[in-house]
Structures are given as structure tokens and as C-alpha cells.
Amino acid sequence: MATRRKASGEDRLIERYFRPIAKNPAALGLLDDAAMLAAPADADLVVTADAIVAGIHFFPGDPADMVAKKALRVNLSDLAAKGAAPLAALLTIALPKGTGDRWLEKFAHGLGTDCAQFHCPLIGGDTVATKGPVAISITALGEVPQGRMVHRSGAKAGDAVMVTGTIGDAALGLLARRNPRRAAFRRLDRKARAHLERRYLLPQPRLALVNAIREFATAAIDVSDGLVGDLAKLAAVSGLGARIATAGVPLSPSAARAVEAEPGLMRTILTGGDDYEVLLTVPEARRAAFEAAAAAAGIPVAALGRMQAGGGVEVLGDGGKPLKLARLSFSHF
To answer: What is the DSSP string of 118-184?
Structure first.
């Protein structure tokens, strides 16, 4: 008499929470050891992976659906900066034993919603137990026309330094959650504080701009660790320096009011990270065309300064005076 295999706890977890959202044929129903994705025709595959960890990238009590969305979106932001459209995602999640059904239900719902919204189907991954905090890693796959991926290198002296969206909201949102009674945040109303905190928890990947990034950018990087630090990385691999002015850094009304109350927060905005905006360089002669394309895509962009010969990043503060920064960006190590 044949013995039937009893499903493991991991099998049951995948069956209950992740198989229902892995509907793309490439996922093979999550019944195999790997997915099978057709190679894009006349395109290059772009692959990126980022992890988020409870207590580092999100608060342990944050809603599980928002955590799932952040995990996916930080990777989609990398794809956007390369001019790549999403193809698929793989999820690896390390869960403390005893993680409740309600948390997993909300996590899977949030992930499934965003996978559908951004046309980035879940096609596989892994689930493991951990004695530490929740840790989530997503590998995102995207595609670009052959030879058209936008690199960090490639900027030219004289190129305009551009950035999407607003900068500093997430870093200020993190500070506001840690110290809501800080003077800069006490002056904000509930709606303004909520905006900052939401920007920390829920990035907005600029996928609507990928065509324009491919068309106009000479180099690009997503702003994850801090505006100045990430610009320094781009400048270094391009063999250049850069000069930007704080007056050009785009701020949301919430961030502007916080800086008005506490001007020193401008340093946090410049170096704090978690913006997940796209920082790119554009030839000055094509800047107006890029701005028009961004407006047509519904994505605000701002000019910060110029790439220049030499090295490093020079930041000009009030009155055009150089601003000294103790650090350029967030670092895990």
C-alpha cells in the first residue's frame, strides 16, 4: 500500500498564502523547484534584488500589507532607474515561528495587489523560519530594448542633474515616528505628518517614466541611501564630480514646513535615504524635452545642478555657500 506524503508546514503556508497570488504561467503553480520565464524577444533582462528587515527598514508593528508593498516597490524603483519595465518577481521571506495567519493574509494581499498594479507577477521564491526579525528579499526582473539599459556611468560634464518627485519626506517621516514631539513635527498638522510617515512606508516607483529615462538620461540611479551619497556614486563611476544647490532640491509642503521650523533638517533631507526617487543626468540641450516628457507622464522632476570635471559632490547652501555634511548617505555598515 502506497504511503501518501504529508504536506509540510512550509507547503501549507505556500498553498494558503502565496499560490493564490502566483497566477502567472511562469510560476508553474509554485509546484516546481524553479519558475520558467520566456526570454524577452529583442530585449535585455535586467535583474535586481533588495531586502528589507524589521527594525531597520520598517517598524515591527507596521501593517503587513504595507510591508509587502515596500518590499516590492524598492526593487521596482531600481528597475525604473535602469529604464526597465517589470517582468516578474521572486520572494524570499524569513518568518519568526508563530507568525500569525492574519499577518500572513495581509502580507499576501498587499503583495498580490501591488504585483497586479505594477504588472510584476510573483513567480517563485522561498520561505524559511528565523529566530530573528522578519526579513524579506525580493528579486525583480525587468526588460529593456537590447543595449538600452541606463547605467550609473555615462554622465558627461555639463549634464543637468535631475531628480523625480520630492526628496526627504521618508527620512523626515522616520524621524517623526521616532520622535513625534520634536519641535519641527509638532508644528505640522496630522495630515502633514501622515504624508511624511506614509512616504517612509510606501515608496512610489517611477515606472511611468522608464521610456523617458531611456530616451534622455545619460546616467541614472535610484535614491535609496541618500541624495548626495547616491549622486556621489553616480559621479564616481562616471569619472566626474557634481555641484548641486539646496535651493533646487524639491520639497513637499510637509517637508518645507519642517525645515522652516528646524533648518538643520536640510542635512537629513540631503543624506537620509529611503526616497526611492530617480536621480539622473540629462544633456542640457535635451533638458526641456525631458521635462516635457516627464510632465506628459505625470511625474514631477526638478533640476539640482550640473555634472562637472573633477570628483566629489559640492553642495551649495543658503547664499551659495558650500554646505559641509558629516556624512553623505545612510550606510548599513
So the answer is: TT--EEEEEEEEESSS-EEEEEEEEEEETT-PPPS----TTPEEEEES-SSHHHHHHHHHH-TTSHH
Q: Give, in order, the Cα–Cα distances in Å from 115 to each of 37, 88, 144, 167, 171.
A: 16, 8, 19, 25, 26
Q: What angle in degrees, to the nearest 10, is found between the helix axes of 190-201 and 169-178?
A: 110
Give the DSSP letter of residue 96: E
* Burial class of 34 by CB neighbour count within 10 A (0 to 12, 13 to 18, 19+): exposed
Provide the 3-class DSSP secondary structure of residue 312: strand
Give the domain ranges of the chain: 9-30+41-145, 160-320
Is 160-320 the same fold as 9-30+41-145?
no
Q: CATH says 9-30+41-145 is which class? A: alpha beta
Long-range contacts made by residues 314-318, C-beta under 8 angstroms, separation at least 24?
314/241, 314/242, 314/243, 314/244, 315/228, 315/243, 315/244, 315/245, 315/246, 315/270, 316/243, 316/244, 316/245, 316/246, 316/247, 317/245, 317/246, 317/266, 318/246
Q: Which CATH number fits domain 160-320: 3.90.650.10, 3.30.450.20, 3.40.50.1100, 3.90.1150.10?
A: 3.90.650.10
pLDDT (tens digit, 9 = 90+) per residue, 219-277? 999 999 999 999 999 999 999 999 999 999 999 999 999 999 999 999 999 999 999 99
The pTM is what?
A: 0.93
CB 75 within 8 A of CB 138: yes
